[in-house]
Amino acid sequence: MALHSASSALPFEHLMRATAGLRAQLRQEVLAAEGPAVLPAWSTLQVTGPHPVADGRGRAWFGYRATIDVAPGVPGEGSG
Length: 80
What we know:
Layout: E1 2-10, H1 15-34, E2 46-54, E3 60-70
Antiparallel strand pairs: 1-3, 2-3
């Protein structure tokens, strides 16, 4: 299995929006790295966050990170 990851930061806490954006990033990453015959195994998706951090101006940002597995050469569980 190959492991892929993505990260994102939002200026507000919103797990569902972060997850949607991370899924899109992972879909593109897997396509670029593995080719069209391999799809992400969405059942292995793990999202962590929010992880609050302050930027240089003291504003709060909320970081999220996602990982997903794929099986090289084997179609995944659907397009998501």
